[in-house]
Write a structure and sequence with these properties.
The chain has 341 residues and is an alpha+beta fold. The protein has two domains: 10-101, no CATH class; 127-338, no CATH class. It is 26% helix and 20% strand. The protein contains nine helices and 13 strands. Strands 1-2-3-4-5 form a five-stranded antiparallel sheet. The protein has a four-stranded antiparallel sheet with strand order 6-7-8-9. The radius of gyration is 22 Å and the shape is elongated.
Length: 341
């Protein structure tokens, strides 16, 4: 059994992937194949258990993507590790991009949705659809994805979209091309999604805003914070804001913090922090038009969760401190993007 360091660090993950392929293919002939989208592909004999591969049919690249033309299996480094009974955790978030496999293969362990008694949570289990929305090729028709690419570059945009589970709606109707924000809880259960339409400037058009619980009965639904699936493995100070898009963008401007979102001005419920059993620091950045409401709600949270440390900030202060006119509606991402910080 191989042991790998599972630090949340892209360079370490890349080293882990290199070591994985090098170790399982030791002694096998490796041939350089074609180059696709700037990525070199290699071929070798298939290392999967039970496959006596006489002719090289295993194709892979060092981003983690692989497939075996004989077995018919494919995936990313985490899925390969599972096939070989190796701990997959060091390879999470290294998606294949080229094969369309999702960036969080740990969701693969979920079972088919079963009948639940009242007040027992149920989760979205259609992984084929989830993966379809996360395919890299679909981002070309997603205005939000193209805007992130324009602002931060292709590689940074792919990381943002993958890290925050932002996909592209593929319902075959008027919602096609809309951004779909996937919500998962701290146990990595997919709970719901939110479809929103953006234009080429990264602003909401207001035409499509739709929550989707994917046929989960109302009494069995769970509404986690957006980004909640990150809280167990990332121990940074937490900043909570309203918009999903804002959370993703601020993660670029300030990687020292973990950004979560409520998904709406009235979605900061008094049970939102129940998952945090140990003391954490929380900053709340309210939109310009939401400060009074959030400030009041955070006062209630201070009473309910005395072990945590809370601060509330008003986006209007960013404009005041820079001698700028305060817009009637704005969030921190608007400030940074509009003023090129």
């Amino acid at each position: 059994m191989h042991k790998y360091n599972s630090l949340e660090n892209d360079h370490q993950k890349q080293a882990n992937i290199n070591q994985l392929f090098d170790s399982i293919l030791t002694g096998k002939t490796i041939k350089i194949g074609t180059e696709n989208n700037g990525m070199k592909w290699y071929s070798s004999n298939c290392p999967l258990p039970g496959h006596k591969d006489k002719k090289p049919s295993f194709s892979f690249n060092y981003s983690g993507a692989w497939n075996c033309f004989t077995c018919g299996k494919k995936g990313d480094a985490a899925i390969l590790a599972k096939e070989l009974n190796i701990d997959p955790k060091p390879y999470y978030n290294n998606s294949t991009h080229l094969t369309g496999v999702n960036a969080l293969p740990r969701f693969d362990s979920k079972l088919i949705l079963k009948v639940a008694h009242k007040k027992e949570y149920k989760y979205f289990e259609d992984l084929d659809y989830f993966r379809k929305t996360m395919k890299l090729s679909s981002y070309n028709k997603n205005p939000l994805a193209m805007y992130l690419k324009k602002m931060f570059g292709a590689e940074a945009a792919k990381k943002i979209l993958g890290d925050y589970l932002i996909g592209t709606s593929n319902f075959g109707d008027y919602r096609d091309g809309c951004a779909i924000f996937w919500y998962a809880d701290a146990e990595n259960n997919l709970c719901r999604s939110k479809i929103m339409q953006y234009d080429h400037t990264g602003h909401k058009t207001g035409n499509v805003i739709q929550w989707n619980y994917h046929d989960i009965p109302k009494e069995n639904r769970k509404a986690p914070l957006y980004g909640e699936w990150k809280v167990k493995r990332i121990k940074k100070p937490i900043t909570i804001i309203e918009s999903e898009k804002t959370a993703t963008i601020l993660s670029v401007y300030d990687p020292r913090k973990l950004y979560l979102a409520t998904g709406g001005i009235s979605a900061l419920g008094n049970s939102a922090l129940d998952i945090f059993k140990e003391p954490r620091s929380f900053d709340f950045w309210a939109d310009v038009d939401a400060f009074d409401k959030w400030n009041s709600e955070v006062e209630d949270l201070k009473i309910k969760y005395p072990m945590h440390h809370f601060r509330v900030f008003n986006t209007a202060n960013l404009y005041e401190q820079n001698s700028l006119d305060i817009p009637p509606k704005a969030d921190p991402a608007d400030f940074y993007l509009d003023h090129k910080y």
